[in-house]
Specification:
Blueprint (H helix, E strand, L loop, with lengths): L3 E3 L2 E2 H8 L1 H4 L3 H18 L3 E5 L7 E5 L8 E5 L16 H5 L4 E5 L9 H18 L10 E6 L1 H10 L13 E7 L5 H4 L5 H4 L3 H7 L12 E6 L4 H16 L4 E6 L7 H5 L5 H9 L3
Parallel strand pairs: 5-6, 5-7, 7-8, 8-9, 9-10
Antiparallel strand pairs: 1-2, 3-4, 4-6
């Protein structure tokens, strides 16, 4: 075994600990299953699709309205290590929330290497601002705005919590609750693994977009969730971010989803009776 490369892991171990496609060999089948469930959700639910929130072709979002207006609005940011993924293949959970009275908004954004992580942080923050300003036109309630994201989307959720919304003329507490699942919080780690061939993380980009250097503002309750079957290194990132949230005075809950790996977390989210989804409903007052 080679010597320690990072965080007490060897270079070979880093790929397993921090590249979910290495630790979950059944990833292709799980991704196919999620995409098929998402296709069914898209065809079954009332929706406004590909609504622009910016000028880029991928600065678009999908809106799945609840039957009754005035309920919570959940903005969801998909994962893919900032380099893959789409809103179209990550809406499998939407029926569970829409049927509970939640309007669900799926955010799309540009991907690396076409853009950098700094651009994606800016885009996703812009999407949240757009939803706050416009969701009433789609029967949503801007005073009940919640944000969630998985993997890279967990990182983007964390960066939304670190943002000073008042600088944009918006309420400081426009986000009423947040749930970050299996987030990528350690950006220095990204420079140590193969995904960086596309992500192109640099020390400067890492400093500019690190949730640890740009901590969350105590504006709302936060749930930090991670799969119980995820590797030790990945779980440690979530633990560390949870600890930071507590130190910053946030009302914060740490949730380990039993038996979930990185790619089955979305299936737990789609299950209205799962601990993860139940915790989100509770956060929304449902």
């Amino acid at each position: 075994m080679s010597g320690t490369a990072y965080k007490d892991f060897s270079k070979d171990e880093l790929e397993y600990q921090y590249n979910p496609r290495e630790s979950v060999p059944e990833y292709p089948e799980l991704a196919k299953r999620r995409a098929e469930a998402s296709r069914k959700a898209r065809s079954a639910l009332k929706s406004w699709l590909n609504v622009p929130y910016g000028s880029s072709p991928r600065e678009i979002l999908d809106i799945y309205p609840a039957d009754k207006p005035g309920g919570p609005v959940l903005i969801y940011i998909h994962g893919g290590y900032w380099r893959t993924g789409s809103k179209d293949d990550n809406c499998n959970f939407a029926p569970a929330f829409v049927h509970r009275g939640v309007t669900v908004v799926l955010v799309e954004y540009d991907l690396c290497p076409k853009v950098g992580v700094t651009d994606i942080v800016r885009q996703t923050r812009a999407s949240i601002a757009w939803v706050y300003r416009n969701i009433m036109r789609y029967s949503g309630n801007p005073s009940k705005l919640y944000v969630s994201g998985h993997s890279a989307g967990g990182h983007l959720t964390a960066m939304a919590l670190a943002h000073d919304w008042e600088k944009e003329g918006l309420p400081r507490n426009l986000i009423k609750g947040a749930v970050a699942t299996s987030g990528v919080y350690d950006l220095e780690m990204v420079m140590q693994i193969s995904v960086n061939e596309q992500v192109r993380m640099t020390p400067e980009i890492a400093r500019e977009n690190s949730p640890f250097l740009h901590p969350p503002l105590p504006i709302c309750p936060v749930i930090v969730a991670v799969g119980g079957a995820e590797p030790k290194g990945w779980q440690q990132m979530s633990e560390d971010y949870f600890r930071l949230c507590k130190e910053r005075g946030l009302n914060c809950q740490y949730l380990i989803v039993p038996g979930a790996n990185h790619y089955t977390m979305s299936e737990h989210l789609a299950d209205a009776n799962s601990p993860l989804t139940q915790a989100m409903f509770k956060q929304m007052g449902l």
